[in-house]
Design brief:
The chain is of the alpha/beta class. The chain has one domain: P-loop containing nucleotide triphosphate hydrolases (Rossmann fold). About 35% of the residues lie in helices and about 15% in strands. It has an 8-stranded mixed sheet, sandwiched between helices. Helix 3 packs across helix 13. The protein is globular, with a radius of gyration of 18 Å. The chain starts with a helix and ends in a 22-residue tail after the last helix.
Length: about 300
């Protein structure tokens, strides 16, 4: 993944990746190479919650499955341009995004064609920086950019980590929760050293919590011991409503905002606002930034 050329370039990366300019977006990658941990659910519902609060938000779907795209009701077969065109062909993000898929929320969509990018990027100059350089053209248009990463540690995820300033790691409340996380942390550290020095783990979000089992509570405590300063207070429940919402092309805030999943993601958005240090938007409010773990999965 990282060749000698990349390694030599690491010494000049700080000059190429300046500190965030005033008025520029906070870019957050949601990453975990393990599938089924709630990355896309978190990306979609957090983006919708932030937009509903009045923050100008861009959601980048960099997963070839394109689940974030379809979760917002976008027909992938009808798309003319996607994130593949941005990464491989050099299209400008501003000319590629779907504007206002929700009020205040833009989407850079994905389709299965993106799977070929893992191979196509290998022969391109500055292959790890393609997304970062594309984001530079629109960073002042948004308050927050969320990147939904694929369940892998290939070039697509490396592009997301090179573009981002922060990483959120969703971890499901199950027995093997921490399996593979150390590999992800190693990759994040490698990207930080060689490609993107400001990169940091913003926090760990526990998902699929089932209050009826002792296991979920045990896993939360185990992860809290592993990431004592990084775990978010919000714990997202296992929820039928969260699972149903994408089939209607809706975020949980639209489908059932009063459900436990809806309340949890609204609370998580509040925590994210606080950790990112976002100023209150002109037309939004900032509610409390924490939530207690739900007691049941309804």
């Amino acid at each position: 993944m990282f060749d000698a050329t990349t390694d030599r370039a690491a010494h000049s990366v700080s000059a190429e990746h300046p500190r965030r300019a005033i008025g520029a977006a906070r870019i957050v990658a949601l990453a975990n190479q393990k599938g089924g941990v709630g990355k896309t659910t978190t990306a979609v519902n957090t983006a919708a919650a932030l937009a509903a609060r009045g923050y100008r938000t861009l959601l980048i779907d960099i997963d070839p499955q394109g689940n974030a795209t379809s979760s917002l009701g976008v027909e992938k077969a009808e798309l003319e341009w996607t994130v593949h065109d941005v990464l491989v062909e050099g299209h400008a993000i501003g000319d590629t995004v779907l504007s206002a898929v929700r009020p205040g929320l833009d989407l850079l969509p994905s389709t299965p064609a993106l799977a070929a990018a893992e191979v196509e990027l290998v022969g391109l100059d500055r292959r790890e920086h393609r997304l970062a350089e594309a984001c530079a053209g629109v960073i002042t248009r948004y308050d927050v950019v969320l990147i939904d990463c694929p369940p892998s540690l290939g070039l697509l995820t490396v592009n997301a980590l090179t573009a981002a300033r922060h990483v959120v790691i969703p971890i499901q409340c199950e027995f093997l929760a921490l399996e593979g996380v150390s590999q992800l942390i190693t990759t994040i550290d490698l990207v930080k050293r060689r490609l993107n020095p400001p990169l940091d783990v913003l926090g760990v979000l526990m998902t699929m919590y089932d209050g009826r089992t002792r296991l979920s509570a045990h896993v939360v405590e185990e992860v809290r011991g592993f990431f004592p300063e990084r775990i978010f207070a919000t714990v997202v429940p296992r929820s039928v409503r969260l699972a149903e919402a994408p089939s209607y092309g809706q975020a949980i805030a639209e489908y059932d905002p009063g459900s436990r999943g809806g309340v949890a993601y609204d609370a998580f958005a509040g925590e994210l606002v606080t950790r990112l240090g976002l100023d209150p938007p002109g037309n939004g409010t900032v509610p409390p930034d924490s939530a207690k773990p739900p007691s049941d999965p309804a």
